[in-house]
Amino acid sequence: MEAGTAREPLRGETAAARAPVAQATADPGPLGLAAFALTTFVLSMVNADLVGSKSEPIVFGLALAYGGLAQLLAGMWEFRAGNTFGATAFTSYGAFWLSFWAFDQFFAKDVPQAAVGNTVALYLIAWGIFTAYMWIASMRTTVAISVVFLLLAATFFILGIGNANASTNMIKIGGWVGIATAAAAWYASFAAVTNSTFGRTVLPVKPLHD
Predict the structure, then answer these.
(1) CA 187 to chain CA centroid, nearest Å
(2) Which long-range contacts (CB under 8 A, 24 or more apart) does 193-202 make?
């Protein structure tokens, strides 16, 4: 068969089999980043004591629906796209928000009051360790993404130390760093959406690889 000519169908081949396979083209990254950013922002506003603790119920709603489920879906789509880094990050942080919601709704009452601070500290510091090695891996992505992971690792460690020591000031500092993390994640999401929509680089993210 010469190049450029249509091939003849094989015997027994169905029309569905001959049809071109549709390829997914949408990038799930901006969705995952936006879900992470918004949920982190709202929780960090509470941690920084910029809004009252009575606002916490909305945090748990976001943790379930947006930070949790939407981000988990973004992670699954990243698996399909073959992006190991994005799949690991979005799936993990989607699970983080779901576990955060589940702990508050179902399991926190079973932890003795005297142990709550250390329990939450262990949880946060463990996530800080995961985020620290993801930050190292992010050095082959973009500056925008790497900044998100650096700030997020700091947020987890500061909040973990604050909870372990029952330090209100440390938790407030962690809240402020969390707000900075959310801003960086929002920028990365905004840049990806805008650059894709405009078909050119409008907002730079500065790749860290060749």
Answers:
(1) 13
(2) 193/30, 196/27, 196/30
Among all chains, which residue has been given the structure tokens 């947020």? 155
CA distances from 175 to 42, 143, 155 (A): 10, 23, 7
Sign of CA dihedral 141, 152, 88, 79: negative
- pTM value is 0.87
State the amino acid at position 148 in one-letter form.
Answer: V
**What are the tens digits of pLDDT across the range 12-26?**
444 444 445 455 568
Phi–psi pair at 26, nearest 5 degrees: -75, 140
* CA dist., res. 79 & res. 34, Å (int): 18
Backbone Cα Rg of the chain: 21
What single-letter DSSP state applies at residue 49?
T
Residue 148 makes CB contacts below 8 A (sequence gap 6+) with: 33, 138, 181, 184, 185, 188
User: Cα dist. 156→11, 47, 99, 130, 140 in Å?
Assistant: 61, 12, 15, 10, 22
Question: What share of the chain has pLDDT > 90, as a percent?
Answer: 84
pLDDT, tens only, 104-133: 999 999 999 999 999 999 999 999 999 999
